[in-house]
Write a structure and sequence with these properties.
alpha+beta; two-stranded antiparallel sheet; extended; disordered C terminus
Length: 148
Amino acid sequence: MRSHRCGRTTPLEGLALPDGPKFERDILETPEDAALFLTATYEVDPEAADLLLTKLATGLRWGEVAALTAESVRAHLGTVEVRQVLRKVNRQWVVEPKPKTKKGYRSVPVHPMVMEMLKRRAAAARGSCSWRRAAITGGTRTSTTGGG
């Protein structure tokens, strides 16, 4: 038996781990897959579809997109700024005022067609994030408390 950092030894040293379960990743592998998914999402919930489109177009994480505010949309630069994130803490959704690391703060370029949608949303939601409810509830049309 080999001794580890804390002076402990492990009786399992040298045993091979079993193979983990195999699973298929849910990935939109082609532009056609993404277009079909977005079309279906727009038919069910346009607000959630806008959030999804932004995520797909920018590569941002779900919590980063959900925490975007109108002020984060930099239309004149064609970018969005990641300044905060939405995160679940103790079973409650919380807007963290800053990303985990300094590299988390960043400006991300946005396709002009997506920027047009973001500009419309920013104008309608100045001062708040209208996507937070869609991100928290999965886009359902029920009301939530504490949304923005």
